[in-house]
Amino acid sequence: MGVLITVATDGQLVLCRDMLQNFGIQAGDLLEVDKLANGQLMIQAAKQKMSWEQLQGMFADKVQGQCLTIADMDNLIADAIVEHVCR
Known about the structure:
- This protein is elongated.
- It is α+β, with helices and mostly antiparallel strands.
- The longest helix has 16 residues.
- The chain has a two-stranded antiparallel ribbon. A two-stranded antiparallel ribbon has the order 3-4.
- Strand 1 and strand 2 form a beta hairpin.
């Protein structure tokens, strides 16, 4: 059986502290709720967009003046996105 979540009188969902800690959810985090075809709800961390300002200079410590190929840059960007999303 899954975990029970309380709906407060103001409509907010109340998650127990243990659940928040186990899933790494912090106050202010966005969660996306989708209704599946079978009527079940799926809750997952919302995908957050990164701004250009967040991207600028984020690889300076990893590059250290090296010339990179497009493939190298693609790999650095992919790794950074995974790291950002999984935080």
